[in-house]
Amino acid sequence: MLDEKLKNQIIDKEVYKTKIAKKYTIFLAQYPEIFSDLISGSIFDFGLYDSIETYYKESPVDMFNVLRKGNGIEIKPGGAVDSDLQLALSVSAVKKLIQTKSKVEYAELCGSFYNDPDDEKGWIDFVLYKRSQTIINMGYGKFAQTAGIIEDYNSI
User: Fold this and answer.
1) What is the separation of C-alpha 66 from the centre of its chain, rounded to a whole number of angstroms?
2) Labelling 155: which of 14, 22, 34, 149 has CA 20 to 30 A away?
3) Which three-class secondary structure string do you get for the chain?
């Protein structure tokens, strides 16, 4: 059963179309430190795809967004109105990510899915809705560096 603190972070949990999205939102609510590098007000979409084909067709099986606010996060179904970016993930990647036990382990696994994508093992991609430098300045660059996606975000 979700404790009260986690319930307050996930808005309309029953609206999600898929079980995997529900599991992923519960996981993210349990590990809000994953978002600790982001500035308050950062908001981005999570698009879950069952294949690379559905990704290319921009047809996720489920979508939700995460807002960084104060010391915590808020998770809502659907895409955000003015999202910074979309983190597109294969369902197979999500199944592995929700088994991680720390921010670093989660970030490193994200990096491996980005740097060595595989339709069966898992993949992630980033769709930027704002300028790269703006995204980096909002704190996403530090996560990308921890994940091994970029070497030194300060040099960009």
Assistant:
1) 8
2) 34
3) CCCHHHHHHECCHHHCCCHHHHHHHHHHHHCHHHHCCCCCCCEEEEEEECCHHHHHCCCCCEEEEEEEECCEEEEEECCCCCCCEEEEEEHHHHHHHCCCCCHHHHHHHHHHHHHCCECCCECEEEEECCCHHHHHHHHHHHHHHHHCCCCCHHHC
- Rounded CA gap, 122 and 147, in Å? 15
> For residue range 28-78, what is the model confidence (pLDDT) as tens digits?
999 999 999 999 999 999 999 999 999 999 999 999 999 999 888 999 999
Which tokens in the block code for residue 148? 């091994």
Rounded to whole angstroms, the Cα distance separating 121 from 118 reads 5
Identify the CA nearest to 112 among candidates 151, 149, 141, 145: 149
* Locus of tokens 């369902």: 91
